[in-house]
Amino acid sequence: MTLPDNADVVDLLVHQHHEVKRALAEVGALEGDSKAAAFARLQRLLTAHESAEQQVVHPATRDLAHNADVARARVEEEMSTDDALAELHALGAAHPDFDARFALLRDAVLAHNEREENEEFLLLRNTQSRERLVEMADSLREVQSMR
What is the CATH code for 9-145? Predict the structure, then answer.
């Protein structure tokens, strides 16, 4: 699915959450070198996605929507995800513990995305103008293009 150029930040992020969900499923379904390659793609995708959220979305939640608690909670979850990704990368997809640890990561990422969509994105939609949300989408794309 291709998003229009004037998609707002919430539409863009929900679309990226669907991409993350597909990438998580792909890693879980593969074996061997294919699994390792799929995990590397997932790691790049999540890193770019979370970094852009931390630069564009969470500050807006904190400063413009005046909800520092929601922003802080999402950042803490993303930091945990970064740690888990690094541990899984170091472990390697062929390691016997990879699948069990990956399942924990998958569940945490899916729960995080759900909290973003149900709390943070709803908060942004309710407090920011359509124009501001489109501007945020442009900023998010810019940040992600630099990675």
Answer: 1.20.120.520
Alpha-carbon dihedral sign for residues 27, 40, 21, 108: positive
Q: Count of alpha carbons within 13 Å of 38, Cβ hemisphere only?
A: 20
Quote the radius of gyration of the chain (alpha carbons, Å).
16
CA distance 1 to 40: 23
pTM attached to this predicted model: 0.93
The pair of three-digit structure tokens given for residue 102, joined into one six-digit string: 């990956």
Mean pLDDT by 10 residues, the chain (147 residues): 81 97 98 97 96 96 92 96 97 97 98 97 95 96 87
Determine which helix (DSSP H) or strand (DSSP E) holds 113, and give its type and residue range.
helix 98-115
d(CA 90, CA 70): 31
Residues in Cβ contact with 27 at an 8 Å cutoff, skipping those fewer than 6 apart? 35, 38, 39, 42, 93, 102, 106
Q: Are 15 and 111 in contact (CB under 8 A)?
A: no
